Amino acid sequence: MEFVHLHCHSPYSFLDGGSSVGELVRRAVAGEMRALALTDHDNVGGAVDFRRTAEKYGVKPIQGVEFTLPGGYHLVALARNAEGYAGICKLLTRAHRRGERGRPRLDPSELAGMGQDLFVLSGCRAGEIPFLLLSGHYREARERALFYREMVGDSLYLELQPAVLPGDLGLHRSLVELSEELDIPLVASADVHYARKADFPVHDLLTCVRTGTTLSATNPERHLNAENYLKSAEAMTRHFRHLPDALRNTLAIAEACEPVPDLGRRRYPTFALPRDVGTADHLRDLVRRGALERYGHSDGEVAKRLDRELDVIISQGYADYFLLVEDVVRFARGRGIRCAGRGSAADSAVAYCLGITEVDALGRNLLFERFMSPERGEKPDIDVDFDARHRDRVADYVRAKYGENRVAGVATFNTFRARSAVRELGKAMGFRPEVLGDLAKRIPRGSGSGNIAEVMEILPEFRNHPEGWEGYERLLSAAAAVDGFPRHISTHCGGLVISDRPLEEVTPLQRSAKGELICQFDKEGVEELGLIKLDLLSLRMLSAVEDAVMDIRTRDRAFDYQAIPEDDEETYAMLHRGETLGVFQLESPAQRALQSRLGASNLEDIIASVALIRPGPIKGDMVEPYIARRHGAEPVTYIHPDLEPILRKTYGVVLFQEQVIEIAVAIAGFSPGEADRLRRVMSRSRPGVEMEELGRLFVERAAQRGIGAEIAEQIYSYLRGYASYGFCEAHAAAFGNTAYRTAYLAQHYPAAFFAAVLSNWPMGYYPPNTLCTEVRRRGIGILPVDVNASGSRFTIEEGNIRISLAQVKGMGGAALDRLLRARDDGFFTSPGDFLRRVDIGADLAENLILCGALASLEPNRRSLLWMLTAGGRRKRVGSFARDIPDFSPEEKIVWERRILGIEAGGSWMGLKREELTDRGFVTTREARSAPEGEEVAVAGTVICPHRPPTRSGKTVVFFSLEDETGLVDVVLFSGPYRRYGHLVFPRAKGPLSVRGEIRRRGGAASVVVQTLEPLSVQ
Question: What is the pTM of this model?
């Protein structure tokens, strides 16, 4: 007797599925089942993954869902066809919008009339009918069965599951009796929650995470045994040998269901135009007008390039999409919202003429085929960054224009990674939170949990753990098992989908944490569903630029950010010194080191540097050849003369993905689409067979163009060695433009620039205190936070920067508004006056005192604190104990750092400088100026420790030490790392002292560690 499973849960049931979609499908294949259904709780987020995977293995996918009904009952529905899938999406949308967020509830009467498109199964023991039968309420169960049959007719089935729990035999008898009495057919299932019996412990742990319990506690939602696995057809036949129709009905249902959702259908939006205006003609007209603005003319090479691009855009059906993006960008700029396109869209001259990007693709000779190609047939992906404060306004405009029912946010699935898996599974296993926290902090950020055990054996920070590692094997094994499992659904940072029809016909919609509608598919899912995605991204640096420009214009009304000269010598000199903290894309330790060696003299150098400091180029050994060739230390050579015009600007190094395409066209005569396929195969590290096939084709085509096999093979190996690490030049150019302009602001308007960066933090690499240290290094003072002088942002006073009130820990928007409104009525005259006029809580008042915000009214912070707490805050207003000694300077700095994240009144390291100097320590400034090879001792706070990939594969740690004079970079090679890594990771608990040797590369100095230890001072 054959059988297929019609009730299965995957990890998309969120903590109620213990095996991946792939494992479930492979298990079905191993059991020779020709079909499988996916029925996750209240969502179909796994539908695209499921259909793709099932068809790959030759299994018919049946898409369903397990609805939650009022009262918490379950009900299974399977889509017969496309209409049934659309019906499930609509029902889920209503269920999610009706119930509390995260607690959808389907009104079962909404199933009425859907029997032609859905099969409905009565569900597991949590189903309404089985629950009533288990409770001894046969009559009520009969009434509900009649109700559901009235809703869906002959599509209703009573679901039977193997008798593995107390009461199951009686439930079976009642279900059979009900079936015979009402002539409702039976269907067998196993309520699958994991692929194999051995996977039960993982599912049990996930259940504990979901219910907030531990393995040592009982909970009704924990399964009593390991029987909810994907049983073989043979095993199911043994369970139901006395009810063969229940088995046969699984096959009949599977046969009647069509695979859904449809992954090949386009659902693109239409841009509204007057009847007598065609979309293509309107797009061409806008582009022509844009060309006149950008180039001053629209003929010659400009016309040839634009016509070629437009022919592809229009023939591929994307004219409406480009008009939509242009309209959104025009809306933003019309309201003063700063924005800039990025990514491969900057390869398009059309996008440049429409004002979507600021990169001149024609002038830079960028390849449109990297962005769009008729041979590739992929959807164009246009990313636009917006001032982070106004991105939601832009999204609201899109919703208003295209309709709430046709626009939704893209989902993202927060998945288990090593840190989250250790924390959550460990908590369910009963480990103490502090132990788990310590363990998780030692795991490199972003690590997957699949190889966590190997990572722990390699990294020295896992040594000397206070509790040892015995007994953690089960936790590590479980963490590896759930690696990549969806934890919960969230909202993509900027993606919106816009459809030509109501979205609930394609995807269920639900409320995000912000209250906006999101679909139940991630960015890959929505594209496979035929939806087109518009990325409206928030970029805080654009907010900072806007703030800085507005501040500069209060002093220099003629200042024009767009007219910043690209050849400013002072800006390039600053880059040569590596003084790029706060500068967009150029501030990381690796970028600072690169800038001091590169000697950038034009925008092209900056664009190249944006592309060079990436994991790929570093591992591909691009950085050193590029620098050496740029400075003439190594000759620039080309294997073939045709490569020179392509690689000239990168000194013969293949740096950009567009160059791969150009080389394949020039050498092998590939069409641009074929060349882009080569680029994609290389960049995605596909299996060697495809690489070999493309290599043979490359050599054959090159021979047809008169290029010898040996040369062609050498060029192909050259491409193969570099292309997988290449970066998109258009994206680098888009970011490089902003990088240079922010560097210009940092050099010429540092107070305005850094005040804006601090006001819009978090962004970039460095914490506020490090940025403030850099500000002081530039000769700009940092003024303390003050209830009478500080505002809602960091402000400039006589060339210095005043700390914002918003920087105070616990200062929410409402409290800040109350404080500023009270101050509008007049400055505060005393601590008592402040506390009487401003309604804030005691905790925030305490923080304001401790960070010095009331120091201009009363300098003795300890006395103020006594006034606040002694005898009740309101009763003792104005009463001081002036004989109470104030906090020491050291204590004040510690409190400021804790509450503001900034040492406002001085530096802790500065207070210890005399002692440190007596002990032979130099400042970071002195270390930066020390000669090559000199041994130094330097101390400071660890900033930005990281372990980037290296060509050798060995672990090398880079970090900076911060003291009162700035930063010095530190290198911890693999040998010392094994000895001292535990002091750096997890985050160092205090300042460290480093003894090492100065290494200089270009204008940058770094300290190569010989010894490292916690700093001990009096």
Answer: 0.89
